[in-house]
Fold this protein.
Amino acid sequence: MTTATPKSNARKPPVPKQDLAIKVFHWVNIISLFALMGSGLRIYNANPVFGGRGGWTFPTELTLGVGLAGARHWHFFFMWFFGLNLLWYGIYILFTKRWKNRYVSSSDVKVLREGNNPKRKNYAYHRLVYTLFIPLLLLAVLTGLGMWKPVQFGWIVALFGSWQALRVVHFFSIPAVLFLLIFHSLLALKVGEWRLVRSIFA
Ligand code: HEM
């Protein structure tokens, strides 16, 4: 007679191993993004994007920085962290050739369109969502640069049509990041449970 193996030990996939560089990138990204969002909302409150000076503002509890000047200090401080972090991530994925297999691929798109294996589909969605973060974060940096130095980066202003259009796009990067973040967190849990989440944070 054979002893039944407890279900919890049955064929658990191995704990994924993440590169230290990726863990650092991920942590710096999250911390600086939240600091940028909080200070950005405080800057917004000083001159709302919609409705001008008398427009709708965000509760101070959601913001970071004392007054406009304080918020700008935080924003510019974390802008460097965020921007340089993204830059070295770009260099890292180029040098390690991570870009070749880490992101959403044509086979993921095929699975999403024609596949009927739910596990494989979730994995493809997971890759799609974290891949989408990259152009979105670059867009936030690009529009931020154009607003910060509209003369030196006049081509960015021209690309979007006006400084006000840049503000609107930059502002909408916040709900877009939060939207992706919800799906990214849920999909990470779905495809790899806590083991996968722990692997990127610890
Ligand atoms: C706004 C904040 C976040 C951003 C911008 C972000 C972005 C990313 C990116 C770009 C990757 C791929 C990195 C690579 O392998 O080269 C990644 C991986 C990952 N992220 Fe996030 N992330 C964020 C927050 C979170 C949160 C809150 C969780 C957990 C609940 C999470 C869980 C994971 C996991 C588990 C992986 C590894 C995926 C895998 O190996 O399949 N992330 N993230």
